[in-house]
Structures are given as structure tokens and as C-alpha cells.
Amino acid sequence: MNETRTVQVRKYDESLHYEWTSRLIEEDGERILLYTGPGRTLQHHTRQARYTYESHSLECFMRHDGFTVQLDLEADGTIRHYCNIGLVPRLDGDVIEFIDLDLDLVADGGGEWRLVDEEEFAVNRVCFGYPDDMVTHVWNTIEDVKRRIDLGKFPFDGSLERRLLTLAKEQSSCSPST
């Protein structure tokens, strides 16, 4: 499968926050999996900057839940996890739009998860006027993600880690030697 998808992450006011393009690995009624090898370029519109990442990356968009999971395989073999909290993604052709609601759960190498960006959430809650029901949605989503992590339920059951390692190995074996 050589199809690609463009990911557009937006803020609550619909302004474009950042975007990138990845290869579609799997798409069904529950999830969309995207993979990008080293050299992925991310256009960060908010910072007016462009970043290039040298990790292998697997992104999982849940079709009915307000979170994504990104796994990055670093050069030293560690896998970083990054879970964005937001609204259910919208699909428009080959574009995936995700409204980022600031809070993130992250785990570096050791697997201990922590909540980050609470200050940004508090500021944007006022600036963008997040409705109370959406704030409740955010905190309920965080609890749901933590429960899935604790129970080892998809996407935190180890299957994405195995998939990422396989994809990275396949890409590495297809890359020309230097």
C-alpha cells in the first residue's frame, strides 16, 4: 500500500497548528495507522517553523475516540509514546484533521506515563472559550486512555510497538547502503 495521508492538526478555532504527510498502513472502521521513516518533515504553522525527524514513526488515529497515539523509534532503540488529546478526527479525502485540545500523555523509553501541557490547556480554555461539556470530554478521555494503558488494551497492548519495529526493519532492509 503506497497511499499517503496528510495530517492537519488544528486548534479549537480551526487554525492550522501543524501538518505532515505519512504513508497509510491500515485503515478500518476503528483506526487509521500511518507510518513515516526517518526524514519526516513537519510544518509547524504556529511557530512558523519546519522540523525534520530522524525517527521511525507510527501514528494511530482512533476513529471514534478523541485521542491519537504516536510511537517514535529512536536511533538508540527506545520507543517514545505521545498521546494527543482532542476531538474525534475528521476525514476529508486523503486529509485527516484532528482538533488538538492541548493536553498530552507522554512516555519516554521507561514506559512511565505523565500528563503534560496543563498550563496551555488552562490558558486556551479561556482564550478559545472551551465549553464545559468539552472540558469534561477532555478529562474523561484522559481517564479512558489511562484505563486502557493500565489494562493493556489497544492501542496500548504492545501491538503498535511490534508493528513499528517490523516497519522500521522493513524500511531499513530496503534502504541503500551508505
Structure description:
With 178 residues, the protein is α+β, with helices and mostly antiparallel strands. Helices cover 26% and strands 43% of the residues. It is built from 3 helices and 11 strands. The protein has helices spanning 118-127, 132-151, 159-174; strands at residues 4-10, 16-27, 31-36, 40-44, 49-53, 56-62, 67-73, 79-86, 90-92, 95-107, 113-116. A 7-stranded mixed barrel has the order 1-2-3-6-7-8-10. Strand 2 (16-27) and strand 3 (31-36) form a beta hairpin. The chain is globular, with a radius of gyration of 16 Å. The model has no long low-confidence stretch (mean pLDDT 93).
Q: Give the helix tally.
A: 3
Shape: globular
Strand element count: 11
Cα(first) to Cα(last) distance is: 26 Å
Approximate strand percentage: 35-45%
Can you describe this structure in just a few lines?
By secondary structure, this protein is of the alpha+beta class. The chain is 26% helix and 43% strand. The protein is globular, with a radius of gyration of 16 Å.
Topology:
Blueprint: E1 4-10, E2 16-27, E3 31-36, E4 40-44, E5 49-53, E6 56-62, E7 67-73, E8 79-86, E9 90-92, E10 95-107, E11 113-116, H1 118-127, H2 132-151, H3 159-174
